[in-house]
Specification:
Cofactor: Mg(2+)
Family: Belongs to the phosphohexose mutase family.
Radius of gyration: 22 Å
Shape: globular
Strand content: 15-25%
Number of strands: 23
Oligomer: single chain
Distance between the termini: 32 Å
Number of helices: 17
GO molecular function: phosphoglucomutase activity
Structural class: alpha/beta
Keywords: Isomerase, Magnesium, Metal-binding, Phosphoprotein
Organism: Brachybacterium hainanense
Length: 545
């Protein structure tokens, strides 16, 4: 751990914004170099302009590729576009507008030329497409310019097709391949107009009011208001800043925006575990400032830069582990949403806590387990066959009160508000309710660590088969399952190994020379550590055999 983890950032920790912006325009990538090519991970293309990984050429090429993809899919409706507060988001947003206008695509931008959370873009797409058939050419899609919780030097760019959620691999592979071909050809086929013409071409959409007005249809706002829950909402300098202010005002809640500052350097942040500035609302080090105020509010919450993640802080429990809160949210929602379909499933990723499995079984519901990536929950949320979809990284969404779709991308705002609804309706904080789950099912220790791996090792891990894992025991217990394909039939891009009381999963990082080890044990922290150590041996043996 970094010696200043949890301490406020100092001048030497801050980016030079002018340097980052200059690099965006001045550096030109070579797509033949893998680290400089367009590459879509689970949440779009990400990188830093300083590394020639997120530059104007990338965004021009990717936007042109999206234009061509949507045309091939028969999508001729408007494209909703939003951006977060990262320094690179505004220039990337401008570049995208120039290319979209050059291709005569109808573009809908924020009515106040402000920031737009990811869930607000998803909500806008679904609102426009409601009642339209999958073949209707007037369908809308969207782009969100965000690297999520990544450090201030990074930029990100993701595409949401007409279903409103993250694009699937078929779309992202096509878009990335076409973008790299456009880069290789010197952007000759990119159609683009100047910034003034692009600004005039764009149309306005009131993301803020449309989203905030609709919130009572997904969260019991009236119950929160009646109970007088004192809420402290920290946007962590992200796109939710105006949304939380409007939520409090429009719905007459006792809500304080803890820190309304927006700063592309994020100079007000406390350093994460590794000493970097990272707007990770599930990290106690990044959330240190809000944790200092935990006794001021009944419920305090944080969001990352594009508001698709949530962090829940209670006076009695501090910052909740994301898995613990997901389990509490699932138990509560499926007990307090009588209009939801009786057959609606509980969605979780393969690296989420087994506590969710136990809660789901207690509810008599079916578990829908998928690889890492919110895109796998999209079809189920649309047709209401999945009531709740959640990821261990503090991202989730759920259905409206009437059982219809709310968003098909992660929504950190409604998950944050749900914590206040839970307190208002049950009289107990989510952390207290988690204590009840522990009494019922037992306590688990969960953590994620990294292990070094080069490009070839990561590719080998991603393609690993269960048969290549020869180990029969893990931390003193017999291995009961080896999984490289999730129960929903999709490859997990790694490995999951389970025993009676523990499991680990290993997946290659898309941005660093490491692989991630997720692990959980119901036998305590010491057993968890043993699982983690043996996990490295199991994976390394499989990769070298």
């Amino acid at each position: 751990m970094h010696p200043r983890a949890g301490k406020k950032a100092q001048s030497e920790d801050l980016i030079d914004v002018d340097e980052v912006l200059s690099a965006y325009y001045d550096l030109h990538p070579d797509p033949a170099i893998p680290d400089q090519a367009v590459s879509f991970g689970t949440s779009g293309h990400r990188g830093s302009s300083l590394d020639t990984a997120f530059n104007e050429d990338h965004i021009a090429a990717t936007t042109q590729a999206i234009v061509e993809y949507r045309a091939a899919q028969g999508i001729r409706g408007p494209l909703f576009i939003g951006r977060d507060t990262h320094a690179l988001s505004h220039p990337a947003f401008d570049t995208a507008l120039e290319v979209l206008a050059g291709n005569d695509v109808t573009v809908l931008v924020d009515a106040m030329d402000s920031y737009t959370p990811t869930p607000a873009v998803s909500h806008a797409i679904l609102t426009h497409n409601r009642g339209r058939s999958p073949e209707d050419p007037a369908r809308a899609d969207g782009i969100v310019v965000t690297p999520s919780h990544n450090p201030p030097r990074d930029g990100g760019f993701k595409y949401n097709p007409p279903h409103g959620g993250p694009a699937g691999s078929e779309a992202t592979t096509w878009i990335a391949d076409r973008a790299n071909a456009l880069l290789a050809s010197g952007l000759r086929e990119v159609r683009r107009v100047d910034r003034a013409k692009a600004a005039g071409h764009a149309q306005r959409y009131d993301y803020l009011h449309t989203y905030v007005e609709d919130l009572p249809n997904v969260v019991d706002i009236a119950a929160i208001r009646r109970a007088g829950v004192r809420i402290g909402a920290d946007p962590l300098g992200g796109a939710a800043v105006d949304y939380w202010a409007m939520i409090g005002e429009m719905h007459d809640l006792d809500l304080t925006v803890v820190n309304p500052a927006v700063d592309p350097q994020w100079s007000f942040m406390t350093l994460d575990r590794d000493g970097k500035i990272r707007m990770d609302c599930s990290s106690p080090w990044a959330m240190a400032s809000l944790l200092e105020q935990k006794d001021v509010y009944d419920i305090a919450t944080g969001n990352d830069a594009d508001s698709d993640r949530h962090g829940i802080v209670t006076p009695d429990g501090g910052l909740m582990n994301p898995n613990h809160y997901l389990a509490v949210a699932i138990r509560y929602l499926f007990s307090h949403r009588p209009q939801w379909p009786a057959s609606a499933k509980v969605g979780k990723t393969v690296v989420s806590s087994s506590l969710i499995d136990k809660v789901t079984a207690s509810l008599g519901r079916e578990l829908y387990e998928v690889p890492v990536g919110f895109k796998y929950f999209v079809p189920g949320l649309i047709d209401s066959s999945v009531g709740f979809g959640g990821e261990e990284s503090a991202g989730a969404s759920f259905l409206r009160h009437d059982g219809s779709v709310w968003t098909t991308d992660k929504d950190g705002i409604i998950l944050a508000l749900l914590a206040s609804e839970i307190l208002a309706v049950t009289g107990r904080t989510p952390s207290q309710l988690h204590g009840e789950l522990v009494a019922e099912f037992g306590a688990s220790a969960y953590d994620r660590i990294d292990a070094p791996a080069g490009r070839e090792q990561k590719a080998r891990l991603k393609a690993l088969s269960a048969e290549e894992v020869t180990a029969t025991e893990l931390a003193g217990e017999a291995i009961t399952q080896k999984m490289t394909v999730a129960p929903n039939g999709e490859a997990i891009g790694g490995l999951k190994v389970s025993t009676e009381s523990a499991w680990f999963a290993a997946r290659p990082s898309g941005t660093e020379d490491v692989y991630k080890i997720y692990a959980e044990s119901f036998r305590g922290p010491e057993h968890l550590q043993a699982v983690q150590e043996e996990a490295k041996k199991v994976v390394d043996t499989a990769l070298t055999s």
